[in-house]
Design brief:
By secondary structure, the protein is α/β, with parallel strands linked by helices. Helices cover about 50% and strands about 15% of the residues. The protein has a seven-stranded mixed beta sheet. The longest helix is centred in the C-terminal third of the chain and has 40 residues, at about 165-205. The two termini are about 35 Å apart.
């Protein structure tokens, strides 16, 4: 399903409503730059699970994905940040089974990161971005409030905001998912109705 105007308008409203601590100019810039665009995973960035290379995680097969960028500062405070992510992931995966999580990490100490992941009971494959290519290619904003985004089934950016930073950001992120699901169901219903109408017309024509 393409990122249509209705979803774009709703997502933009949700972002303005969620980011109360950011300036209007900051939010406007992120809305213009990211909504409806594709997130890029650059070549040379591989998936790792506790130091071992693994394949593409199942999270990418989900209808919705939250992609979080963990820079040096976030990784340095991983013992504080990662347990917050664990609580949110547990809630998200329980209430929204079509939601997956992917982390991209750029740090000078991946061993410490792995220790913090183990402490937080997070056993998800993570993108180790040694050269910080993900940040450079996607132009991740300096404001950490925008260091995560919600993707749809086609990996189009639907919402930008760090859900562990503010409960309101997480609430609006979930609202965008719900709205997207409603739009998908509406389109399916419209197609079914259109097909039935065409079948009726064809039957009348053939008589």
């Amino acid at each position: 399903m393409s990122f249509n105007l209705k979803i774009c308008e709703y997502a933009a409203y949700a972002m303005y409503h969620a980011h109360k601590q950011a300036t209007l100019d900051e939010v406007a810039h992120v809305v213009r730059r990211y909504l409806g665009k594709d997130l890029v995973v650059p070549n040379g960035v591989g998936y790792t699970l506790f130091g071992k290379k693994v394949g593409i995680p199942d999270a990418w097969k989900k209808k919705h994905k939250i992609i979080a960028y963990l820079g040096p500062e976030q990784c340095k405070n991983g013992h504080i940040i990662l347990p917050k992510w664990k609580r949110l992931m547990d809630e998200g995966e329980k209430k929204h089974p079509d939601l997956g999580f992917v982390f991209v990490a750029h740090t000078n100490d991946y061993k410490q990161l792995e220790s913090d992941l183990c402490f937080a009971n997070i056993f998800h494959p993570m993108l180790y971005d040694h050269n910080n290519l993900f940040q450079k290619v996607n132009h991740i904003p300096n404001n950490s409030a925008f260091h995560a985004c919600l993707l749809d089934e086609e990996n189009t950016i639907m919402f930008v905001g760090l859900p562990i930073k503010d409960p309101k950001i997480w609430e609006e992120c979930k609202n965008v998912m719900i709205f997207n699901n409603l739009m998908i169901e509406s389109q399916k219903s419209s197609k079914i109705i259109s097909t039935k109408i065409r079948n009726v017309k064809n039957k009348k024509t053939s008589k």
